[in-house]
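Problem: given the chain below (500 residues), write out its structure.
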Amino acid sequence: MPTEEELFAQRLDKRGRLLATGDPYPARVERSHEAARAVAEFEAAEQAGGDAGIAVAVAGRLTAMRVMGKVAFLDLRDGSGRIQLQLRQDSLGEAFERLPLADIGDFVQATGRLFRTRTGEITVGVEAWAVITKALRPLPEKWHGMTDVEARSRQRYLDLIANQRSREVARRRAAVLASIRRFFAQREFMEVETPVLQQHVGGAAARPFVTHHNALDRELFLRISLELHLKRLLVGGFDRIFELGRVFRNEGISRRHNPEFTLLESYEAYADYHEVARMVEELFRFVALEVAGTLELPVGEHVVDLGAPWRRTTYREALLEHAGIDYTAHRELQDLRAIARERGVPVDEGASWGTVLDGLMSAFVEPKLIQPTFIFDYPMEISPLAKRSTTDPTVAERFELFALGYEMANAYSEQNDPVEQRDRMREQSMKQAGGDEEAEVADEDFLVALEYGMPPAGGLGVGVERLVMLLTGEQSIREVILFPTQRELQPGTHEPTLPR
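Solution.
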Protein backbone atom coordinates (compact mmCIF):
# COMPACT_ATOMS: atom_id res chain seq x y z
CA MET A 1 0.00 0.00 0.00
CA PRO A 2 1.64 3.29 -1.07
CA THR A 3 2.20 5.92 1.60
CA GLU A 4 0.53 9.32 1.39
CA GLU A 5 3.86 10.85 0.40
CA GLU A 6 4.20 8.33 -2.46
CA LEU A 7 0.65 9.02 -3.66
CA PHE A 8 1.38 12.75 -3.55
CA ALA A 9 4.50 12.21 -5.69
CA GLN A 10 2.51 10.11 -8.20
CA ARG A 11 -0.07 12.86 -8.55
CA LEU A 12 2.63 15.49 -8.99
CA ASP A 13 3.98 13.40 -11.87
CA LYS A 14 0.51 13.19 -13.45
CA ARG A 15 0.16 16.95 -13.07
CA GLY A 16 3.40 17.40 -15.02
CA ARG A 17 2.20 15.08 -17.79
CA LEU A 18 -1.10 16.97 -18.02
CA LEU A 19 0.77 20.28 -18.20
CA ALA A 20 2.73 18.93 -21.17
CA THR A 21 -0.47 18.66 -23.23
CA GLY A 22 -2.65 21.40 -21.79
CA ASP A 23 -3.63 23.25 -18.61
CA PRO A 24 -5.04 21.14 -15.77
CA TYR A 25 -5.99 24.38 -13.95
CA PRO A 26 -7.88 26.49 -16.52
CA ALA A 27 -9.29 29.86 -15.49
CA ARG A 28 -12.73 29.05 -16.91
CA VAL A 29 -14.65 26.08 -18.25
CA GLU A 30 -17.93 25.57 -20.07
CA ARG A 31 -20.80 24.26 -17.96
CA SER A 32 -24.32 24.28 -19.35
CA HIS A 33 -25.99 22.19 -16.63
CA GLU A 34 -25.58 21.35 -12.99
CA ALA A 35 -25.95 17.62 -12.36
CA ALA A 36 -29.42 17.90 -10.81
CA ARG A 37 -30.71 20.11 -13.62
CA ALA A 38 -29.39 17.72 -16.29
CA VAL A 39 -31.21 14.80 -14.66
CA ALA A 40 -34.41 16.82 -14.24
CA GLU A 41 -34.45 17.97 -17.89
CA PHE A 42 -33.84 14.44 -19.13
CA GLU A 43 -36.73 13.06 -17.05
CA ALA A 44 -39.02 15.88 -18.19
CA ALA A 45 -38.17 15.20 -21.85
CA GLU A 46 -38.85 11.49 -21.36
CA GLN A 47 -42.25 12.16 -19.82
CA ALA A 48 -43.13 14.55 -22.66
CA GLY A 49 -42.25 11.88 -25.23
CA GLY A 50 -39.62 14.07 -26.90
CA ASP A 51 -35.91 13.64 -27.59
CA ALA A 52 -34.24 13.00 -24.24
CA GLY A 53 -30.74 12.98 -25.73
CA ILE A 54 -30.00 16.44 -24.38
CA ALA A 55 -26.53 17.88 -25.04
CA VAL A 56 -24.87 18.94 -21.78
CA ALA A 57 -21.58 20.24 -20.47
CA VAL A 58 -21.05 19.26 -16.83
CA ALA A 59 -18.22 19.81 -14.36
CA GLY A 60 -17.46 18.58 -10.86
CA ARG A 61 -15.33 16.37 -8.63
CA LEU A 62 -14.64 12.72 -9.47
CA THR A 63 -15.89 10.55 -6.63
CA ALA A 64 -15.70 7.11 -8.25
CA MET A 65 -14.07 5.45 -11.30
CA ARG A 66 -14.90 2.04 -12.75
CA VAL A 67 -12.75 1.09 -15.75
CA MET A 68 -13.86 -2.03 -17.61
CA GLY A 69 -11.57 -2.48 -20.58
CA LYS A 70 -12.63 -0.11 -23.30
CA VAL A 71 -15.45 1.46 -21.29
CA ALA A 72 -15.25 3.50 -18.09
CA PHE A 73 -17.91 4.87 -15.78
CA LEU A 74 -17.12 7.89 -13.63
CA ASP A 75 -19.20 9.49 -10.89
CA LEU A 76 -19.13 13.28 -11.00
CA ARG A 77 -20.49 15.40 -8.18
CA ASP A 78 -21.12 19.13 -8.10
CA GLY A 79 -22.96 21.35 -5.64
CA SER A 80 -26.34 20.06 -6.80
CA GLY A 81 -25.74 16.31 -6.74
CA ARG A 82 -24.21 13.40 -8.67
CA ILE A 83 -24.31 12.30 -12.30
CA GLN A 84 -22.65 9.38 -14.08
CA LEU A 85 -20.28 9.76 -17.03
CA GLN A 86 -19.62 7.03 -19.59
CA LEU A 87 -16.33 7.14 -21.51
CA ARG A 88 -15.87 4.78 -24.48
CA GLN A 89 -12.58 4.16 -26.24
CA ASP A 90 -14.22 3.76 -29.66
CA SER A 91 -15.69 7.26 -29.52
CA LEU A 92 -12.99 9.12 -27.58
CA GLY A 93 -9.84 7.57 -29.08
CA GLU A 94 -6.71 9.24 -27.68
CA ALA A 95 -8.77 11.14 -25.09
CA PHE A 96 -9.70 7.78 -23.53
CA GLU A 97 -6.00 6.95 -23.13
CA ARG A 98 -5.59 10.00 -20.84
CA LEU A 99 -7.93 8.45 -18.27
CA PRO A 100 -5.05 7.06 -16.12
CA LEU A 101 -3.99 10.67 -15.52
CA ALA A 102 -7.23 11.28 -13.58
CA ASP A 103 -7.67 10.34 -9.92
CA ILE A 104 -10.48 10.32 -7.40
CA GLY A 105 -10.76 13.87 -6.10
CA ASP A 106 -9.86 15.57 -9.38
CA PHE A 107 -12.28 18.02 -10.96
CA VAL A 108 -13.22 17.22 -14.54
CA GLN A 109 -15.36 18.75 -17.26
CA ALA A 110 -17.25 16.62 -19.78
CA THR A 111 -19.54 17.29 -22.74
CA GLY A 112 -21.91 14.83 -24.39
CA ARG A 113 -25.50 13.67 -24.61
CA LEU A 114 -27.70 12.18 -21.91
CA PHE A 115 -29.03 8.64 -22.11
CA ARG A 116 -30.18 5.83 -19.85
CA THR A 117 -27.98 2.83 -19.30
CA ARG A 118 -29.36 -0.71 -19.30
CA THR A 119 -29.57 -0.44 -15.50
CA GLY A 120 -31.73 2.67 -15.87
CA GLU A 121 -29.23 5.30 -14.70
CA ILE A 122 -29.22 8.70 -16.44
CA THR A 123 -25.72 9.11 -17.82
CA VAL A 124 -23.64 11.49 -19.95
CA GLY A 125 -22.29 9.76 -23.04
CA VAL A 126 -18.99 11.65 -23.06
CA GLU A 127 -17.79 13.14 -26.35
CA ALA A 128 -14.98 15.22 -24.83
CA TRP A 129 -13.51 15.54 -21.36
CA ALA A 130 -10.61 17.15 -19.48
CA VAL A 131 -9.10 17.38 -16.02
CA ILE A 132 -9.74 20.96 -14.88
CA THR A 133 -8.20 20.71 -11.39
CA LYS A 134 -5.59 18.10 -10.55
CA ALA A 135 -5.87 17.23 -6.85
CA LEU A 136 -2.44 16.50 -5.37
CA ARG A 137 -3.57 15.02 -2.09
CA PRO A 138 -5.64 11.84 -2.16
CA LEU A 139 -8.89 11.88 -0.26
CA PRO A 140 -8.77 10.03 3.08
CA GLU A 141 -9.03 6.27 2.72
CA LYS A 142 -12.51 6.37 4.22
CA TRP A 143 -13.50 9.70 2.67
CA HIS A 144 -16.99 8.33 2.06
CA GLY A 145 -17.67 8.24 5.78
CA MET A 146 -15.44 10.47 7.92
CA THR A 147 -16.62 10.02 11.50
CA ASP A 148 -13.89 11.50 13.73
CA VAL A 149 -15.46 14.72 15.05
CA GLU A 150 -12.13 16.47 15.65
CA ALA A 151 -10.83 15.64 12.17
CA ARG A 152 -14.12 16.58 10.55
CA SER A 153 -14.25 20.06 12.08
CA ARG A 154 -10.51 20.68 11.69
CA GLN A 155 -10.58 19.79 7.98
CA ARG A 156 -14.13 20.80 7.20
CA TYR A 157 -13.44 20.72 3.46
CA LEU A 158 -12.87 16.96 3.66
CA ASP A 159 -15.93 16.55 5.86
CA LEU A 160 -18.06 18.36 3.27
CA ILE A 161 -16.69 16.13 0.51
CA ALA A 162 -17.36 13.00 2.52
CA ASN A 163 -20.59 13.65 4.39
CA GLN A 164 -23.83 14.64 2.76
CA ARG A 165 -25.25 15.36 6.22
CA SER A 166 -22.64 18.07 6.81
CA ARG A 167 -23.56 19.73 3.53
CA GLU A 168 -27.26 19.57 4.44
CA VAL A 169 -26.63 21.21 7.84
CA ALA A 170 -24.61 24.00 6.20
CA ARG A 171 -27.42 24.64 3.71
CA ARG A 172 -30.02 24.62 6.46
CA ARG A 173 -28.03 27.16 8.44
CA ALA A 174 -28.00 29.43 5.39
CA ALA A 175 -31.76 28.90 5.04
CA VAL A 176 -32.26 29.87 8.70
CA LEU A 177 -30.43 33.17 8.20
CA ALA A 178 -32.45 33.94 5.07
CA SER A 179 -35.70 33.08 6.86
CA ILE A 180 -34.85 35.33 9.82
CA ARG A 181 -34.26 38.19 7.42
CA ARG A 182 -37.62 37.58 5.72
CA PHE A 183 -39.40 37.53 9.07
CA PHE A 184 -38.03 40.91 10.10
CA ALA A 185 -38.43 42.44 6.65
CA GLN A 186 -42.13 41.54 6.71
CA ARG A 187 -42.39 43.47 9.98
CA GLU A 188 -40.57 46.49 8.54
CA PHE A 189 -37.42 46.09 10.62
CA MET A 190 -34.27 47.53 9.05
CA GLU A 191 -31.10 45.41 9.03
CA VAL A 192 -28.03 47.31 10.22
CA GLU A 193 -24.36 46.66 10.99
CA THR A 194 -22.44 47.79 14.05
CA PRO A 195 -18.68 47.73 14.77
CA VAL A 196 -16.82 44.55 15.71
CA LEU A 197 -13.83 46.46 17.12
CA GLN A 198 -14.94 48.50 20.11
CA GLN A 199 -13.34 50.83 22.61
CA HIS A 200 -15.58 49.48 25.39
CA VAL A 201 -17.41 46.16 25.54
CA GLY A 202 -20.86 45.74 27.03
CA GLY A 203 -24.29 44.28 26.57
CA ALA A 204 -23.45 40.87 28.06
CA ALA A 205 -21.73 39.25 31.02
CA ALA A 206 -18.66 37.82 29.28
CA ARG A 207 -14.89 38.16 29.04
CA PRO A 208 -13.73 39.91 25.85
CA PHE A 209 -10.88 39.27 23.44
CA VAL A 210 -8.35 42.11 23.42
CA THR A 211 -6.45 43.31 20.36
CA HIS A 212 -4.09 46.19 19.62
CA HIS A 213 -4.59 48.85 16.96
CA ASN A 214 -1.13 49.86 15.77
CA ALA A 215 -2.00 53.17 14.10
CA LEU A 216 -3.98 54.41 17.11
CA ASP A 217 -1.60 52.67 19.55
CA ARG A 218 -4.40 51.54 21.83
CA GLU A 219 -6.19 48.43 22.89
CA LEU A 220 -9.55 47.55 21.35
CA PHE A 221 -11.96 44.75 22.10
CA LEU A 222 -13.85 42.31 19.91
CA ARG A 223 -17.53 42.85 20.66
CA ILE A 224 -19.31 40.48 23.03
CA SER A 225 -22.78 41.65 21.99
CA LEU A 226 -24.51 44.02 19.57
CA GLU A 227 -26.69 45.76 22.12
CA LEU A 228 -25.18 49.08 23.03
CA HIS A 229 -24.58 50.26 19.49
CA LEU A 230 -28.04 49.14 18.37
CA LYS A 231 -29.56 51.18 21.20
CA ARG A 232 -27.62 54.20 19.95
CA LEU A 233 -29.58 53.75 16.71
CA LEU A 234 -32.85 53.89 18.66
CA VAL A 235 -31.63 57.20 20.03
CA GLY A 236 -30.89 58.25 16.46
CA GLY A 237 -34.49 57.72 15.39
CA PHE A 238 -34.79 54.20 13.95
CA ASP A 239 -37.81 52.46 15.50
CA ARG A 240 -37.29 48.84 14.29
CA ILE A 241 -33.79 47.50 13.74
CA PHE A 242 -32.03 44.14 13.79
CA GLU A 243 -28.57 42.75 13.19
CA LEU A 244 -27.17 39.29 12.47
CA GLY A 245 -23.59 39.67 13.64
CA ARG A 246 -20.60 37.68 14.77
CA VAL A 247 -19.69 38.16 18.44
CA PHE A 248 -16.66 36.96 20.39
CA ARG A 249 -16.43 35.78 23.99
CA ASN A 250 -13.18 34.71 25.61
CA GLU A 251 -14.67 31.66 27.27
CA GLY A 252 -14.55 27.88 27.17
CA ILE A 253 -15.42 25.47 24.37
CA SER A 254 -18.17 22.90 24.82
CA ARG A 255 -21.00 21.19 22.96
CA ARG A 256 -23.02 24.40 23.34
CA HIS A 257 -20.32 27.08 23.35
CA ASN A 258 -17.87 28.40 20.77
CA PRO A 259 -15.75 31.53 21.38
CA GLU A 260 -17.21 33.14 18.24
CA PHE A 261 -20.80 32.75 17.19
CA THR A 262 -23.62 34.52 15.39
CA LEU A 263 -26.07 36.59 17.38
CA LEU A 264 -29.43 37.96 16.29
CA GLU A 265 -30.45 41.11 18.11
CA SER A 266 -33.56 43.19 17.42
CA TYR A 267 -34.96 46.34 19.00
CA GLU A 268 -38.45 47.75 18.62
CA ALA A 269 -39.41 51.17 19.98
CA TYR A 270 -42.62 51.40 22.03
CA ALA A 271 -42.69 47.64 22.75
CA ASP A 272 -42.06 45.86 26.06
CA TYR A 273 -40.80 42.39 26.94
CA HIS A 274 -44.26 40.81 26.74
CA GLU A 275 -44.61 41.99 23.15
CA VAL A 276 -41.11 40.70 22.40
CA ALA A 277 -42.07 37.29 23.83
CA ARG A 278 -45.01 37.08 21.45
CA MET A 279 -42.70 37.99 18.58
CA VAL A 280 -40.20 35.30 19.57
CA GLU A 281 -42.88 32.61 19.35
CA GLU A 282 -43.86 33.89 15.91
CA LEU A 283 -40.21 34.03 14.81
CA PHE A 284 -39.35 30.47 15.85
CA ARG A 285 -42.50 29.05 14.28
CA PHE A 286 -42.02 31.06 11.08
CA VAL A 287 -38.42 29.88 10.63
CA ALA A 288 -39.22 26.28 11.59
CA LEU A 289 -42.00 26.00 9.02
CA GLU A 290 -39.90 27.62 6.29
CA VAL A 291 -36.73 25.65 6.96
CA ALA A 292 -37.84 22.33 8.49
CA GLY A 293 -41.44 22.21 7.25
CA THR A 294 -42.73 21.22 10.69
CA LEU A 295 -43.17 22.52 14.24
CA GLU A 296 -42.29 19.14 15.77
CA LEU A 297 -38.52 18.92 15.83
CA PRO A 298 -36.72 15.68 16.80
CA VAL A 299 -33.45 16.23 18.65
CA GLY A 300 -31.84 13.15 20.16
CA GLU A 301 -34.36 11.41 22.39
CA HIS A 302 -36.69 14.41 22.48
CA VAL A 303 -39.22 15.96 20.13
CA VAL A 304 -39.51 19.70 20.71
CA ASP A 305 -43.02 20.91 19.88
CA LEU A 306 -43.01 24.56 18.86
CA GLY A 307 -46.71 24.40 18.03
CA ALA A 308 -47.89 23.56 21.55
CA PRO A 309 -48.47 26.44 24.03
CA TRP A 310 -45.10 27.55 25.43
CA ARG A 311 -44.85 27.38 29.18
CA ARG A 312 -44.43 30.65 31.10
CA THR A 313 -43.04 30.88 34.61
CA THR A 314 -40.87 33.24 36.66
CA TYR A 315 -37.27 33.00 37.78
CA ARG A 316 -38.27 32.63 41.41
CA GLU A 317 -40.96 30.02 40.68
CA ALA A 318 -38.61 27.96 38.49
CA LEU A 319 -35.84 27.88 41.10
CA LEU A 320 -38.35 26.92 43.81
CA GLU A 321 -39.87 24.20 41.63
CA HIS A 322 -36.68 22.51 40.49
CA ALA A 323 -34.20 23.27 43.29
CA GLY A 324 -36.33 24.12 46.32
CA ILE A 325 -34.46 27.43 46.71
CA ASP A 326 -36.22 30.74 47.36
CA TYR A 327 -33.51 33.22 46.46
CA THR A 328 -35.43 36.09 48.06
CA ALA A 329 -34.66 34.48 51.44
CA HIS A 330 -30.90 34.39 50.71
CA ARG A 331 -29.87 37.96 49.89
CA GLU A 332 -26.39 37.73 51.44
CA LEU A 333 -23.51 36.55 49.24
CA GLN A 334 -22.05 34.24 51.89
CA ASP A 335 -25.46 32.65 52.48
CA LEU A 336 -25.87 31.91 48.77
CA ARG A 337 -22.27 30.67 48.50
CA ALA A 338 -22.96 28.19 51.30
CA ILE A 339 -26.02 26.85 49.46
CA ALA A 340 -23.98 26.46 46.27
CA ARG A 341 -21.26 24.55 48.12
CA GLU A 342 -23.84 22.28 49.74
CA ARG A 343 -25.35 21.52 46.32
CA GLY A 344 -21.96 20.92 44.69
CA VAL A 345 -22.07 23.98 42.42
CA PRO A 346 -18.58 25.46 41.87
CA VAL A 347 -18.18 29.16 42.70
CA ASP A 348 -15.29 31.38 41.57
CA GLU A 349 -13.56 33.38 44.26
CA GLY A 350 -14.61 36.75 42.86
CA ALA A 351 -18.15 35.75 41.90
CA SER A 352 -20.91 38.15 42.87
CA TRP A 353 -24.28 37.27 44.43
CA GLY A 354 -25.93 37.37 41.02
CA THR A 355 -23.28 35.14 39.45
CA VAL A 356 -23.69 32.52 42.18
CA LEU A 357 -27.47 32.67 41.82
CA ASP A 358 -27.31 32.18 38.07
CA GLY A 359 -24.95 29.25 38.63
CA LEU A 360 -27.65 27.58 40.71
CA MET A 361 -30.21 28.26 37.98
CA SER A 362 -27.89 26.78 35.34
CA ALA A 363 -27.24 23.67 37.43
CA PHE A 364 -30.74 22.81 38.62
CA VAL A 365 -33.33 24.45 36.38
CA GLU A 366 -32.10 24.89 32.83
CA PRO A 367 -31.33 21.18 32.11
CA LYS A 368 -34.98 20.32 32.87
CA LEU A 369 -36.46 22.80 30.39
CA ILE A 370 -36.78 20.61 27.30
CA GLN A 371 -39.94 22.03 25.76
CA PRO A 372 -40.00 25.78 24.98
CA THR A 373 -40.24 27.64 28.30
CA PHE A 374 -40.18 31.35 29.06
CA ILE A 375 -38.57 32.32 32.37
CA PHE A 376 -39.79 35.84 33.22
CA ASP A 377 -38.82 38.45 35.83
CA TYR A 378 -35.11 38.00 36.55
CA PRO A 379 -33.49 39.54 39.63
CA MET A 380 -32.32 43.11 39.00
CA GLU A 381 -28.82 42.18 40.19
CA ILE A 382 -28.23 40.13 37.02
CA SER A 383 -30.13 42.41 34.64
CA PRO A 384 -28.23 45.72 34.56
CA LEU A 385 -29.64 46.89 31.21
CA ALA A 386 -33.31 46.08 31.85
CA LYS A 387 -36.17 48.11 33.30
CA ARG A 388 -37.42 47.46 36.80
CA SER A 389 -40.80 45.82 37.10
CA THR A 390 -43.57 48.26 37.94
CA THR A 391 -45.02 45.72 40.40
CA ASP A 392 -41.82 44.49 42.09
CA PRO A 393 -38.73 46.75 42.07
CA THR A 394 -36.43 43.83 42.92
CA VAL A 395 -37.00 42.14 39.56
CA ALA A 396 -36.41 43.19 35.98
CA GLU A 397 -38.77 43.09 33.02
CA ARG A 398 -36.66 40.38 31.43
CA PHE A 399 -37.21 36.89 30.09
CA GLU A 400 -35.08 34.09 28.74
CA LEU A 401 -36.36 31.34 26.48
CA PHE A 402 -35.14 27.79 27.06
CA ALA A 403 -35.48 24.59 25.06
CA LEU A 404 -33.51 21.34 25.14
CA GLY A 405 -32.01 22.46 28.45
CA TYR A 406 -30.25 25.58 27.24
CA GLU A 407 -30.89 29.26 26.61
CA MET A 408 -32.31 30.09 23.20
CA ALA A 409 -33.15 33.78 23.64
CA ASN A 410 -32.76 36.67 26.07
CA ALA A 411 -34.92 39.79 26.07
CA TYR A 412 -36.09 42.69 28.17
CA SER A 413 -37.84 46.00 28.34
CA GLU A 414 -34.84 48.26 27.77
CA GLN A 415 -33.67 50.62 30.48
CA ASN A 416 -33.93 54.14 29.04
CA ASP A 417 -33.63 56.24 32.21
CA PRO A 418 -30.09 57.64 31.85
CA VAL A 419 -29.69 58.36 35.57
CA GLU A 420 -30.65 54.86 36.69
CA GLN A 421 -28.62 53.29 33.88
CA ARG A 422 -25.54 55.25 34.96
CA ASP A 423 -26.05 54.13 38.57
CA ARG A 424 -26.39 50.51 37.51
CA MET A 425 -23.27 50.64 35.34
CA ARG A 426 -21.38 52.20 38.25
CA GLU A 427 -22.45 49.22 40.39
CA GLN A 428 -21.21 46.86 37.69
CA SER A 429 -17.85 48.63 37.55
CA MET A 430 -17.50 48.17 41.31
CA LYS A 431 -18.20 44.45 40.90
CA GLN A 432 -15.53 44.22 38.24
CA ALA A 433 -13.05 46.00 40.51
CA GLY A 434 -13.96 43.43 43.16
CA GLY A 435 -12.91 40.55 40.90
CA ASP A 436 -16.03 39.75 38.87
CA GLU A 437 -14.49 39.56 35.38
CA GLU A 438 -17.88 39.19 33.69
CA ALA A 439 -19.46 42.34 35.14
CA GLU A 440 -20.64 45.03 32.71
CA VAL A 441 -18.13 47.76 31.87
CA ALA A 442 -19.37 51.36 31.88
CA ASP A 443 -19.57 52.78 28.34
CA GLU A 444 -19.57 56.56 28.73
CA ASP A 445 -20.56 57.28 25.12
CA PHE A 446 -23.58 54.97 25.47
CA LEU A 447 -24.60 56.74 28.67
CA VAL A 448 -24.27 60.12 26.95
CA ALA A 449 -26.44 58.82 24.08
CA LEU A 450 -29.15 57.83 26.59
CA GLU A 451 -29.08 61.35 27.99
CA TYR A 452 -30.29 62.60 24.59
CA GLY A 453 -33.35 60.36 25.02
CA MET A 454 -34.10 56.79 23.93
CA PRO A 455 -37.74 55.73 23.46
CA PRO A 456 -39.21 52.84 25.47
CA ALA A 457 -38.23 49.67 23.63
CA GLY A 458 -38.17 45.90 23.74
CA GLY A 459 -34.90 44.18 22.86
CA LEU A 460 -34.14 40.59 21.88
CA GLY A 461 -31.04 38.41 21.52
CA VAL A 462 -31.06 34.92 19.94
CA GLY A 463 -28.06 32.63 19.53
CA VAL A 464 -28.34 31.61 15.88
CA GLU A 465 -26.26 28.43 16.26
CA ARG A 466 -28.58 27.12 18.94
CA LEU A 467 -31.60 27.81 16.76
CA VAL A 468 -29.88 25.93 13.93
CA MET A 469 -29.14 23.04 16.31
CA LEU A 470 -32.84 22.90 17.16
CA LEU A 471 -33.88 22.93 13.50
CA THR A 472 -31.32 20.34 12.36
CA GLY A 473 -31.45 17.98 15.32
CA GLU A 474 -27.73 18.42 15.96
CA GLN A 475 -26.56 18.24 19.56
CA SER A 476 -23.15 19.91 19.23
CA ILE A 477 -22.50 23.49 18.19
CA ARG A 478 -19.44 22.26 16.27
CA GLU A 479 -21.76 20.60 13.78
CA VAL A 480 -23.53 23.85 12.83
CA ILE A 481 -20.45 26.10 12.57
CA LEU A 482 -18.43 25.43 9.44
CA PHE A 483 -15.12 26.35 11.09
CA PRO A 484 -15.39 26.08 14.90
CA THR A 485 -12.52 27.17 17.12
CA GLN A 486 -10.01 24.31 17.43
CA ARG A 487 -7.63 23.26 20.14
CA GLU A 488 -4.00 23.17 19.06
CA LEU A 489 -2.89 19.96 17.39
CA GLN A 490 -0.81 17.77 19.67
CA PRO A 491 2.77 16.94 18.61
CA GLY A 492 2.83 14.08 16.14
CA THR A 493 -0.71 14.72 14.88
CA HIS A 494 0.13 17.42 12.32
CA GLU A 495 -0.43 17.06 8.62
CA PRO A 496 2.47 15.16 7.03
CA THR A 497 5.03 17.25 5.18
CA LEU A 498 4.77 16.30 1.54
CA PRO A 499 7.24 16.93 -1.29
CA ARG A 500 7.02 20.19 -3.17
